[in-house]
Design a protein that fits this description.
Elements lengths: L23 H8 L9 E7 L5 H4 E3 L3 H6 L11 E2 L4 E3 L7 H5 L3 E8 L7 H10 L11 H17 L13 E4 L14 E3 L16 H12 L3 H4 L2 H13 L17 H14 L6 E6 L14 H20 L6 E7 L19 E7 L6 E3 L20 E2 H13 L4 H4 L15
Parallel strand pairs: 1-8, 1-9, 5-11, 5-12, 6-7, 6-8
Antiparallel strand pairs: 2-4, 3-4, 5-10, 9-10
Length: 423
């Protein structure tokens, strides 16, 4: 089987602990030329399953909100007030300090303009950045890195990219490289350090290590092709590191959950100065058709883990958090009315979170469409007023310097003049 470069750690298992001596090829990459946004890193979180944005960021002044959700609405006296109209679900208490400090912004009534209610299609459209267009084989985040490289090359008048990027430039926490990171820029998938071995060193190589070796041998990528032994030494160093010895910063209390562990590993990788520029992870469990719950229950439990993990990551990064932007997204929202089984069905618009040192937080952005019956999309959903690509376009422009938004989101007609000024 011919191995794709973007899958050279397909089903990989790798984690980092501490900041041990960095191999010379990584030092050259990290300390070499930087782009127009030096030291900026972007973390993308996909909430798979379609989040109920109306119970996440609650429009508690909308009378119809309560009439449409008699058993799952969040009572006004339980909502964490944000601005006198919107409030957070009580399980998102960990987000309130970040909001008050001006680091966390919210965009409500946001999402994809495509009307699909299929999880699979909608996720593909969101990740490809081409809503309604099937067959796109690259992701918006990979194309953002390509646009960044093109911008650097244009400004510095060099062929290709002026910079030798780290092998860890683009990574995903999980078993596979997601569609979001598919494309020309090599990306890796990292999961569990104990399952990763390097060919010729120690036990028999895992499939991930074999894929890494095969990709390296055939690669024309300069950073890998000319520094092979150092590359494998780097992987060996990471494999030999004991994640259990990693000590998060004081106050960074990660939940003992799959998502909490993913966020902790992203912090480890970023703090190890390995040249990570973009990191992706996802979290499932948002498809609440039945027994969704209100203040307590299924959604509340998921939100508690979600917010506590992100808040721990923010505290863990310390001063470095100033150079990080984090954005969340989900394929679509859920119906305004609860259904007959105490849940909500597939809807349309949703809420996005943007967190970062350079974020103009402490505000709920986007035009609110209202929840009166005549204001609902197709008479059932929160209507969309902000295209999610407008949010992501602003983030990648300000964070990565990816100014050619037509490359990142083809045919979207994005313009910096319509940015929400989130960043």
């Amino acid at each position: 089987m011919k191995l794709s470069r973007r899958f050279f750690l397909h089903k990989g298992a790798l984690a980092v602990a501490g900041t041990a001596a960095i191999p010379s090829f990584l030092v050259r990459s990290v300390l070499g030329e930087t782009t127009g946004t030096p030291n900026k890193r972007l973390v993308v979180i996909f909430q798979r399953g379609a989040v109920d944005g109306l119970n996440v960021v609650v429009p508690y002044r909308e009378k119809n909100y309560y009439s449409m959700r008699p058993s799952i609405a969040i009572p006004q006296n339980k909502v964490i007030d944000l601005d006198g109209f919107f409030g957070l679900h009580p399980s998102l208490a960990a987000f309130k300090p970040l909001y008050d400090e001006g680091h966390l912004a919210i965009v409500h009534a946001a999402g994809s303009p495509d009307m699909s209610r299929s999880h699979f299609d909608a996720q593909d459209y969101m990740e490809s950045g081409t809503p309604g267009v099937k067959g796109t084989d690259s992701g918006w985040l990979n194309r953002a890195l390509q646009a960044e490289d093109a911008n650097v090359a244009l400004r510095r008048r060099c062929a290709g990219t002026c910079e030798q990027h780290s092998a860890f430039r683009a990574l995903a926490l999980g078993a596979d490289v997601p569609l979001t990171l598919a494309g020309k820029v090599p990306a890796i998938a990292l999961n569990n350090v104990n399952g990763f071995t390097v060919a010729g060193r120690g036990p028999a190589p895992s499939p991930a290590a074999s894929a890494f070796e095969a990709m390296y041998a055939d690669s024309g990528d300069h950073i890998l092709h000319t520094t092979g032994d150092e590359t494998f030494e780097a992987v060996k160093m990471l494999r030999d590191a004991n994640p259990a010895q990693y000590q998060p910063a004081p106050g960074a209390d990660y939940p003992n959950s799959e998502f909490g562990n993913s966020m902790k590993q992203i912090a480890q990788l970023l703090k190890a100065n390995l040249g990570v520029e973009v990191a992706f992870t996802d979290v499932s469990g948002w498809d609440t058709h039945q027994n969704q719950g209100g203040v307590n229950g299924q959604l509340a439990n998921r939100l508690s883990d979600f917010s506590a993990s992100i808040a721990a990551f923010w505290r863990d990064m310390g001063d470095s958090a100033e150079d990080i932007a984090l954005v969340t997204m989900s394929e679509f929202g859920r119906t305004a009315h609860e259904n007959g089984t105490g849940g909500t069905d597939h809807g349309h618009a949703n809420a996005m979170f943007v967190l970062g040192g350079g974020v103009n937080g402490g505000k709920v952005y986007g035009r609110w469409p209202g929840l009166a019956n005549e204001q609902l999309n197709q008479g059932r959903d929160l209507a969309l007023t902000t295209d999610y690509r407008q949010v992501l376009g602003e983030v990648v422009t300000r964070t990565l310097g990816a100014e050619n938004l037509e490359t990142v989101f083809p045919n979207a007609g994005l313009s910096s003049s319509r940015f929400l000024r989130l960043v």
